[in-house]
């Protein structure tokens, strides 16, 4: 069995918008039978997870480079382009 992927879900404060995205990712994981370790954090905390994370999904702006893919999830807040974002996330998780 493959290891559970650690997915960071980050926003500016780690509370409001990341909660919305976290719920959407949980639902998507269930629908696709994916076992994920979801970690909801502030964008400033991402650096603490560089050795363990497989993916960062964020509503915050980040200019830093990380050793894992970074997906912008603002579409979950606007409702525009949600399906494209979900497709992008699933592609990364299935790698």
Automatic annotation (TrEMBL):
<dbReference type="GO" id="GO:0008982">
    <property type="term" value="F:protein-N(PI)-phosphohistidine-sugar phosphotransferase activity"/>
</dbReference>
<keyword id="KW-0813">Transport</keyword>
<keyword id="KW-0808">Transferase</keyword>
<dbReference type="InterPro" id="IPR003501">
    <property type="entry name" value="PTS_EIIB_2/3"/>
</dbReference>
<dbReference type="InterPro" id="IPR013011">
    <property type="entry name" value="PTS_EIIB_2"/>
</dbReference>
<protein>
    <submittedName>
        <fullName>PTS sugar transporter subunit IIB</fullName>
    </submittedName>
</protein>
<feature type="domain" description="PTS EIIB type-2">
    <location>
        <begin position="5"/>
        <end position="95"/>
    </location>
</feature>
<keyword id="KW-0762">Sugar transport</keyword>
<dbReference type="Pfam" id="PF02302">
    <property type="entry name" value="PTS_IIB"/>
</dbReference>
<dbReference type="GO" id="GO:0009401">
    <property type="term" value="P:phosphoenolpyruvate-dependent sugar phosphotransferase system"/>
</dbReference>
<dbReference type="InterPro" id="IPR036095">
    <property type="entry name" value="PTS_EIIB-like_sf"/>
</dbReference>
